[in-house]
Amino acid sequence: MGKRSKKAPIPQRPIQQKAPKNLITEKISSLVGNKPDAELMNNLSADQLNDLSELTVKVESVQSEYEAKKASVELEAKELAAEKASIEANRERLENALKEAEQDAETATEKLADLLRKEKELTDKSEQIALREAQADAGFVNQHCQALELLAADLTSLKSEQSKSLSQNQEQLLESLREFDRDHQTRTAELAAELQRLREARGSLVEEQIALELGKSELVEREAKRASWEQARQEQFEQEYSNRIAELESDLYRVNGYRKRDEALVSSLRERLADFSELERVLKNRKLDSPEQLLELIDTLESDIRDYRRKLNSQPVEDLEEKIDYLSDENRRLEDQLRDSDQELQIVKRELQQKALGVVEREGLLHENRVLKARNDAISVATEQLKREIDDLTERQQGQEVFPALSEMDIKLSDSVATQPVGNLEEFVDDLQVRIAQSDLNNPLYYSKETLRLFLAGLAMSQLHIFQGISGTGKTSLAKAFAKAVGGHCTIVPVQAGWRDRDDLVGHYNAFEKRYYEKECLQALYRAQTPAFGDRFNIVLLDEMNLSRPEQYFAEFLAALELSGDDRNVVLMESAPSKSPKLLLEGRKMPVADNLWFIGTANHDETTFEFADKSQDRSFVLELGRNGVIDGLTGTLKSPVVYSANSINDAFCSAEGEYESEVSRVMKGLYDHDLTRILEKRFGISWGNRLERQARKFVPVYVAAGGQAHEAWDHLLSVRIFRDGKVTGRFDTRPDDLADLQSALGNAWETLFNGEMATRCEERLEKELERKEMA
C-alpha cells in the first residue's frame, strides 16, 4: 500500500444528520446486499453524504428501470415463445399436408404407371393383331376376319377407356397439385408475415436488451467506481489510523519515559523525606517540636551570651578567669552546635522547598499521567476496532484468487487454435517480408531479407534479443509487426529507470490482501502456456530495456534461460497458496515456455546504462539501420494466418542437422588459425562453449533461410568478439595488435570462405584503428 499524505481529521457531524446517514446505509444495504462499514460512514462529510445519497437515488432509479425493462422483456419473451409454439404447430400442420400431397402424388404416379402398363398391353395386343393380319395375308383372311373385327372393337374400347381414365386421373392430379400450390402459397405468405413480425419483435427486443446491457454496464461501472472510491477511502483511513497509532505509540513511549523519570524523582524525594524524618527524630530527642523552636533556642542562647558578657564586664578579672575559660569553652561548644544547627536548618529549608516543588511537579505529572492513560485507553479501543476491521478485510480476502488474472486465463484461453506449419525457411522469409510490409497499410514497414534472416536465426539462437540503433529505425515496430504477421501475441512492457529487482517486472505478492499483483510480463509468461497460445509466437517487448540495469531486474530470467525442462522457471512465492492457476509448477513457479522470446530495445545516451557482458553474451544482438522503400511488396493483400511455433522449432532442428558438418569445419578452421592465437595472447579472448553452441544454432538457420555462411559468421563475431569492450573500445590495445588481428581475420575468411570478406568485423576494426590514430 502506497504512503499517503496525512490529512486533517474529518470534523464531527451534527446529531441531526444521523437519520439521513442511517437511511443512506439502509439504501446501500438494499442495493448492494452488504452493509457498508460503520466507521467509513461516520467519517464521511456532509457533502460526501449528499453525493452518496444522490448516487443511491440514481442507482435505485436505474435499478427500477432495469427491473421494469427486464419484466417487459421477460413478458415479450413469453409471448414470443407462445408465438413460436404456434408457428411450430402451423409448420407441423403444413408438413403433414405436404406429406399428404406427396402421398397423393405417389398415388397418381402409381395410376400413371398402371395406365402405362395397360398401354403396353394394348401395344402388345396391337402387335398380335398385326401378326394375325400378316397371317391373314398368308391365307387366313377369311378365317380371322371376324376375330380381327372383334379385336379392333376391343382395342378401340380399351383405348377410349384408357384415355378417359388417364384424362380423369390427370385432372385429379392437376387439381390436387393446384390445391396444394394454393395452400402452400397461403401458408408461405402467412409464415413470411409471421417471420417478419418475429424479426421486428426480435429487433426491438435486441435494442431493448442492448439498452438494458448499457444500463447494466453503466450501473456496474458506477458500482466499480463506488467500490474503488470505498477502497481508496479505506486505504486512506487505514493510513490515517496507522499514522495516528504511530503518533499515539510515540506519545505513549514518551509518557513512559516521563513516568520512569517521575518514579526516579519520587524515589529521590522519598530518600530526602527519610533524611528529614531523621532530622525530626533528632529534634524530638532534644525536645524540639519544630525548626522554629530550634531558632528560638539559638536566639535564647545568643541572648544569654550577651548577658554573660555584660556580667563579665561588671565583675573583676581575677574572679572570672576560671569562668571565662569555662564560658569560652561553652561558647565554642555552643557556636559549634549553632553552626551545626544552622547548617541543618538550611538543609531542612532547602529540602522543604524541594519537597514543595516536587509535590507540585508530582501533581502535574499525575495529572498528565491520567490524561495519557485516558489517551492510551482510547488508542487501545481504536486499535482493537482497527484489528477487527483488518480481520474482517482479511477474512473477505481469503475467498479471493491469489492470481486473479492468471486464473481467468485458465477459463478464457482453454480452447486451442488451429495453426499452419512454417515449412521452408527461405519461403517463410519471403512471406514474412510481405506480411510485415502489409501489417500497417498507412505506414508500411520495409525490412530487407538480410535483416529478417538475422532475426529468424536469432530466434533459433537465443530467447533474448537486443535491438540497437538510433531512434526511428523500427526497433519496436519490427517486434510488433512480426507478432502480427505470424498470428502471435506481443506484450509491450515499458522499462522504468527506477527498476531494481524482479518484482518491478513481474509484480509482487501482497501478504495483507493475500493477492499477487500480476504485471503484464507475468501475464504474458502465463499466456504463452495456455492452449490458445501454446503453439503460437509470444513476444515480451522490453521497451527501453537499458533505462535500468537488466542485470538486476532481469537477473532471474538470465539464469532461467540457460536451463532446460522444468528447471527453467522463475519462483514467484516461497509457498504455494490454496488456490493457484493450474499451469504454475508446484503452484508457485512460473515456467519460461519455448515459444516465448524476450526482445529488448536499447538506445545509448546519458540516460541509459551499458549492457554487461553476461547480458550480451546470452543474447542475440541486432543493429538496425534506416530501411528504404522496397518495391513490389504491398501488392495483393495476404489473408491473416497463424503460424505454428512448434513447427518453426522443428525447422530449426532440421537446418542444424543439415549444416552441422559445415559449421564444424569452420569451427575447426578458426580454432587452428592464427586469429585464435592473436585473440588469446594479445586480447585475452578465447572461444567459449556458449559461443560454439550459439554458432551451431545461428549459422544453419541463416543459411537455410537463403543467406550465406560467411555473412552469418561475420555478424556473430562482430557482436560477440569484435564489439565494444571485447576487441574494440579498449584503452589497453595497441594499433599494431589491431593491424595484426585485421590481417589474420582477412586471411581466415579467405581460407575458410573462398576469398569472401568479413565486412562487419572489418568495419569495426577500421573504426578502432582510426580512433587510435586520432588519440
From TrEMBL:
<dbReference type="GO" id="GO:0005524">
    <property type="term" value="F:ATP binding"/>
</dbReference>
<dbReference type="GO" id="GO:0016887">
    <property type="term" value="F:ATP hydrolysis activity"/>
</dbReference>
<feature type="domain" description="ATPase dynein-related AAA">
    <location>
        <begin position="466"/>
        <end position="562"/>
    </location>
</feature>
<keyword id="KW-0175">Coiled coil</keyword>
<dbReference type="Pfam" id="PF07728">
    <property type="entry name" value="AAA_5"/>
</dbReference>
<protein>
    <submittedName>
        <fullName>AAA domain (Dynein-related subfamily)</fullName>
    </submittedName>
</protein>
<feature type="region of interest" description="Disordered">
    <location>
        <begin position="1"/>
        <end position="21"/>
    </location>
</feature>
<feature type="coiled-coil region">
    <location>
        <begin position="63"/>
        <end position="125"/>
    </location>
</feature>
<dbReference type="InterPro" id="IPR027417">
    <property type="entry name" value="P-loop_NTPase"/>
</dbReference>
<feature type="coiled-coil region">
    <location>
        <begin position="317"/>
        <end position="351"/>
    </location>
</feature>
<dbReference type="InterPro" id="IPR011704">
    <property type="entry name" value="ATPase_dyneun-rel_AAA"/>
</dbReference>
